[in-house]
Amino acid sequence: MKLLILNGPNLNMLGIREPEIYGNQTYSDLCELIMRHAAEIGVEAEVRQSNHEGLLVDWIQEARGKFDGIVLNPAAYTHSSVALLDAVQAVGVPTVEVHISDPDRREPFRRVSYVRAACVACVKGHGLAGYAEAMDLLKLKMENGK
Length: 146
What we know:
Layout: E1 2-7, H1 19-22, H2 27-41, E2 44-49, H3 53-63, E3 69-73, H4 82-91, E4 95-99, E5 121-124, H5 129-143
Parallel strand pairs: 1-2, 1-3, 3-4, 4-5
Helix pairs in contact: 2-5, 3-4
């Protein structure tokens, strides 16, 4: 099983950006956690990050036929990107939306997720560990054939 882990804008700034919200761990720490967890559960994982919406759309489209699932943290694009929603819907690759913080406990504008309508699940507010949870959900979904 192959999983594509996509991270949106500013996630490359983990450890620097608002540590009171996102913690002190860095983006490198996140990538290490993902790769370690992938090895533990017996899946391949590829991790990518971009601050550019169009590139994220391209990567989602490229996932069709190459990846069995996507873990997507659209970051700020969560609240504004119909393009990401359309891409996830178009490719039909099971996708789990993930957020380090819980957007529902933050500013009102962050409570809207466009992409969620196309996702099989959403993991939010579990810190970096939420990525492992999202990977587990996708693996279980694939094993159960759903």
